[in-house]
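## tool: complex_structure
## caller: assistant
## args:
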Amino acid sequence: MTPADRRAVITGVGAVAPGGHGREAYWDLLTAGRTATRRISLFDPAGFRSRVAAECDFDPLASGLTPQEVRRMDRAGQFAVVAAREAVADSGIELPGADPERVAVSIGSAVGCTTGLEEEYAVLSDGGRDWLVDHSYGVPHLYGYMVPSTLAVEVARQAGAEGPVALISTGCTSGLDAIGHAVQLIEEGTADVVLAGATDAPLSPITAACFDAIKATTANNDDPEHASRPFDGRRDGFVLGEGSAVMVIEELESARRRGATVYAEILGFAGRSNAFHMTGLRPDGREMAEAIRVALDRARLDPGDIDYINAHGSGTKQNDRHETAAFKRSLGQRAHEVPVSSIKSMIGHSLGAIGSLEIAACALALRHQVVPPTANLSTPDPECDLDYVPVTAREHRMDRVLSVGSGFGGFQTAMVLGRPSERRGEAA
Amino acid sequence: MSASGIRPGRRGRSVVTGIGVVAPTGIGAARHWESVLAGKSGIGRITRFDPTGYPVRVAGEVPGFRAGEQVPGRLVPQTDRFTHFALAAAEDALTDAAADPATLPEYEMAVVTASSSGGTEFGQHEMENLYQQGSSWVGAYQSIAWFYAATTGQVSIRHGMRGPCGVICGEQAGGLDALGQSRRLLDTGSRLVLSGGTDASLCPYGVVAQLSTGHLSAEDDPARAYLPFDAAASGFVPGEGGAILVVENAESARARGVPSYGELLGYAAGFDPTTDGTAARHTVLVSVIRRTLADAGLTPDAVDMVFADASGVPAEDLAEARAITEVFGPGGVPVTAPKTLTGRLYAGGAALDVATALLALSAGVIPHTAGLGRPAPGCEIDLVLDRPRQTDPRTALVLARGHGGFTSALLVGAGDRDALKR
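## result:
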């Protein structure tokens, strides 16, 4: 088979997200338009500029992890393993199967095991007192926290994978890029099954402090439920989140042979960089538009074929303007015709993980033919003038959807998904 | 075209046209190569902090690196030392390749680097600020210096490279995985990729975290601390630095009229899912080597030298020696590990090994593994000891294993550049 014949499809979805437990609860939250943002409880946020976040009510033991797994894994690792198990169960696939070398793993994470790393730092440095940290207080798995690759290792061990295993860390596009990497592995013939997704658990003092320092996060602390306001005129920064989505991505023919149910096919993806600024975005959306254009080209689609846009929609002043410009630049009139929504309005921005949660949402949206809304959108912004599906979910006929991500470092990624029946190059 | 942009037909040829090195063996490819040929070690007592109270006191530090001279001044306070190294190495690599990014199509240039632990020292400083003084003392640059993508982002901005950028973390194997990814990018619309990796985790928290693996050598004598495949092996020495390479598609290099150090002929990656923590199983490495050869369309007899992962942990050395023997036969291929001069450089290690292998191919020499005495029992490999071998090798296989089970291999072939031949 040539690469064009080897098509990558999603056959299982697992999610650990704020506001509920597992994939079904996640979809319920999104379609109900409920927000999972609240005052931070994972640490004492007093003294911080931004004191709200979208937290997961996550009980690792109740989620099926053993005491040793809980001890060994940082919170981000726990999320990923629980999400991976749900995805594998959902897809019905037996892993590693007859040929473990054909099983690969591609997990994204922006900040890795930063929570575990910080907690241990606080102990080893005795509350920051000692630059020469005391090694006698080190936990056995400390190095596993230092290297984010641990997150991919844990998922790979779950699967018994012996094929390529990668941890992709391109900041806030990590999730989309990790799924894109999985598609590449399948198309080039390296793997038949990839556990792909992303995880981040950044709700710790150091991460909160560094976003405070650049005023990227919201200061709307008095009304946590309505603090994440993508595309709204009163938006003032993003709300940190946490979570993980992992998907079973398979080569279509082998998925068909075992009778798997397909959520969606990944039809095209592309990444571009703005080479402009580590955190700043030019208002014209030029490089994101280019990523969208290339992703459509690879999918052999025109702008008119896109039925829904799952936006990055972080809720910062500059992002939402940048992104709106990118949609208009790449899709022309179609940008004004299709629903566009940001689920960060409900589950916050979980950095590298969010891309995987957004692709999971797209897969579920295609299956259920429902567009999740942009919560909290009530004040118009003249620079954001598309149909952002305010407040209420919408039933909508969708064959192909576009999801985009934008991150620190200047990275821009676009991915196009289609319903399983939508062959590339064929009429809908 | 496919969803990831792969075009029909055979994979294109990927060549390396520029090498930038920042390593304990020296700054710049020429100085590094001189040290390798002379067996001059860059390992010594740690000077970046006082190691007296720790069970590990030697490391491979980059000598004489002055960020203020080698990195644009504005970027020095904004980035960690691992990014300083990469910015300097990327600049050198582009100069070496005679490539001027301003004259090349912006969307056809990409950056993909390996990262192992990110801006470790920068992060420790900012956590100290946070815990000692409070959240408002954490600086604005923490958000862009600490994370693993800092290097790729800064390098792409510095050189106006707007193609698909990437960051791959596979601990010590990451450098090979980044180069493997550079080939994919060249097959999907990019013409020039800056790739490789650097690391700089020689701060107290960085080294203490590594202690938890139990794999660092507690030996105080720099000449005795890192002796892979040796009867006296006692683990490995941590190091800092790495290499950034310019990888181009062959047509682009030809159009620019530049020679290449060599070609990326084959690559494969696998994973050892066993959980005993020693990664001692050799079967995954055997499979990865065979898949790399298959990817290159070559057989074991086409390999002229092997750059070993050479962990220095006896069980891991034994597993690697067994794997090499199983594929190539007992003593069937010369094996070397110039990394005994630098220690293990994490994200930078495998990238530096590839740089060294390419320099060796262009010089027609197999560099030796300095410092070893008596081979460990059971290691039936032809280790190149004492002095380089002038055998005019045409291919080199580079092996790398990363903490947790990452296993990768990259096969490189000689190019037409002989500037460093002596």
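## assistant note: Chain A has two domains: 8-257, 268-418. The first helix of chain A runs from residue 22 to 32. Handing back to user.
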